[in-house]
Structure formats: structure tokens, C-alpha cells
Design a protein that fits this description.
Elements (H helix, E strand, L loop, with lengths): L1 E2 L28 E3 L3 E5 L7 H5 L4 E2 L3 E8 L1 E6 L2 E6 L2 E5 L4 E7 L4 E7 L1 H10 L2 E2 L2 H4 L3 E5 L2 H19 L6 H20 L4 E2 L7 H16 L6 H8 L3 H12 L3 H19 L4 H7 L5 H12 L3 H7 L2
Antiparallel strand pairs: 1-9, 2-3, 3-10, 4-9, 5-8, 5-10, 6-7, 6-9, 8-12, 11-13
Length: 311
């Protein structure tokens, strides 16, 4: 295995990095791009190496990353846990994971998709699921692909890359989105995970509200934990916001808020090694004991018991 980067790892104990977009750099050249929606990288052209970009330091990314390994192997570090992944595997890294690629073999070859939240939300709606960072954050999947599956996903990827790099034509973005839908469906089948079924009509003002609430929640839940706050930002009543959430997820707004705060608390304590006091302060609880009571109310166990269970 060849070391891709000798840069020292950055400590996350000193501060909480919310999101990093390592792909918005002037010297980064993807294999194909839809601005702020979708980036493609692979080892068959002169694009910037995804491996080199992600190996400089650990980054907490908010995009969804799919890496299809066609030859060789790589060593990934996800939330400080190292995995060696050989050829014939698909790695899917959901948003909010702290990720970097430590090394790769000299014969390493791959293709990869980087999907921004806006497009992810649209794709999941297209295929009948609801997309939620709060539900899927801090998860990643590593699965074997059969030869048939690899051939299928590779075919979809390269057709999408070709069209993204071709001149514009009518309905170009619609066609690319259809290809991305097909790729996501294949990924779901490969990993055999079950996204949350969409409960209501996605072509409605209510669904737009639901998606906006999830977006606001990801941005503000480290500071704000009341339904009233989010309802006020959206210009609707707290009761109506909860009605909208239940319509699309069978969970009210208060439950969504609690779960989002817990996900961030777990990330701080486990991934970034925050103490209970530091976690409490980062999430704007008045005292450590109030944070502990909140954590136990939502999860059924204390923060100390949770961290100990992962040791």
C-alpha cells in the first residue's frame, strides 16, 4: 500500500467543525459536474484524484459519497475507525461523517459520485422515499458487488458522465437526474438498507415545508430545540409544522428536533472526543446535568453509559 499523504491528522477536540466542502477549491477538477448538485470523479481521466483530496486531513462532509472500487484496494478512516476495502466493493458514506482516505494500492482504480443534499432530496422523492440527514447521518455502508452489479452501476455512471460533459440539450438535467435515480436504486439494493418511505404527496407546498424544516434543523439544532423557533422561521404555527412532519415521516417536529440534537451530541462525544461538559456547552445546554437529563429522556441511557457502551 502506498501512503497518499504524510500530513498530520487534525485534532477535532478543540472545536466542532459543522460542515466542510473540500470540493469547492479552484484547483479541483472533477470528471464531470452539475454545480452544487453532483460531482463525478474517476481514475480514467485527468481529473483531480478524489483520493488525494480526501487524504490531506479528516473532513466532516455534508455530501453523500459513493465510491465504487474496480481494482486494487484503499484504506479509509471513517469517524476514526479504519477499514481496508478491496476491489469489487461499494462504499457509501452518508452526510456528517468525518472521513479521509489514508492510503491506496498502486493499482487502485475507482469511480465515485459526490451528491449534494439538494439533489439527494429530489432523488429520494423521485423514488418514493424521504431524505433525512438526521436519520442517516454518522452511517456508512461497505458492500460487495457482483460482476453483474458492477457492470450495471459502471454503465450508468459512464453514461451519466458522458451526458454531463456533452453540450447542453433540452431536458439534459432531467435525463441525468433519471440516471442518478437508477444509480441510487442500485445502491439501495446492493447495501440492502431501508430508507424511510415517503408518506405524503411530494408535489405539494407541505412537502416543500417539510424539506425546509429538515434543512433548518441541520443548521440550527446545535442551538435551538423548540418547535416554536423553527415554525417562526417558516412563518407557520407550531401545530401546523408538526402536522406537516407527521404527514411525511410519522414523527412530529419535536421528535425530529430531539433526534437531531442527539445525533450531534453522539458525534461530539464519540467522533470528536468531546467531554460531557464540552458537549453540553457546544449544544448550548445551561448545565451538564440538563444535557444528561435530555440525553437520557431521548435515548433511555445517560451520556456516560452511551460512551461506555462503545468502548
Amino acid at each position: 500500500m502506498s501512503q497518499i499523504s504524510q500530513s498530520p491528522r487534525r485534532s477535532y477536540n478543540s472545536r466542532y467543525v459543522e460542515y466542510v466542502d473540500v470540493f469547492k477549491q479552484k484547483d479541483v477538477i472533477p470528471s464531470a459536474v452539475l454545480k452544487d448538485e453532483l460531482l463525478l470523479f474517476d481514475s480514467t481521466d485527468e481529473s483531480t484524484s478524489l483520493i488525494a483530496m480526501l487524504s490531506e486531513k479528516p473532513n466532516k462532509v455534508y455530501q453523500k459519497i459513493n465510491i465504487y472500487i474496480t481494482q486494487g484496494e484503499m484504506q479509509l478512516v471513517i469517524n476514526e475507525k479504519e477499514e481496508t476495502v478491496p476491489a469489487g466493493h461499494l462504499v457509501t458514506i452518508m452526510p456528517e461523517n468525518t472521513t479521509f482516505i489514508k492510503s491506496a494500492s498502486d493499482d487502485f482504480e475507482y469511480f465515485a459520485t459526490i451528491i449534494y443534499p439538494k439533489l439527494s432530496s429530489l432523488i429520494y422523492t423521485d423514488i418514493g422515499y424521504t431524505y433525512s440527514n438526521a436519520r442517516m447521518s454518522l452511517r456508512h455502508f461497505v458492500s460487495v458487488l457482483s460482476d453483474e452489479q458492477m457492470q450495471k452501476v459502471s454503465g450508468i455512471y459512464h453514461e451519466m458522465k458522458r451526458d454531463m460533459n456533452n453540450a447542453d440539450y433540452e431536458f439534459k438535467e432531467t435525463y441525468i437526474r433519471c440516471l442518478m435515480n437508477a444509480l441510487i436504486i442500485e445502491n439501495i439494493n446492493i447495501h440492502q438498507y431501508n430508507p424511510m418511505l415517503l408518506q405524503g404527496n411530494s408535489n405539494s407546498r407541505q412537502y416543500d415545508m417539510y424539506c425546509r424544516f429538515l434543512s433548518l434543523l441541520n443548521k440550527h439544532s446545535n442551538e435551538q430545540r423548540t418547535v416554536h423557533y423553527y415554525a417562526n422561521l417558516m412563518g407557520i404555527s407550531s401545530k401546523y409544522l408538526s402536522f406537516v412532519c407527521i404527514s411525511y415521516s410519522q414523527k412530529n417536529a419535536s421528535t425530529w428536533i430531539d433526534e437531531a440534537v442527539i445525533q450531534k451530541a453522539k458525534a461530539l462525544m464519540v467522533v470528536h472526543r468531546y467531554s460531557f461538559s464540552e458537549t453540553s456547552n457546544a449544544l448550548h445546554f445551561p448545565t451538564v446535568s440538563s444535557f444528561s437529563r435530555f440525553f437520557k429522556r431521548v435515548t433511555g441511557i445517560t451520556p456516560k453509559a452511551y460512551v461506555k457502551s462503545l468502548a
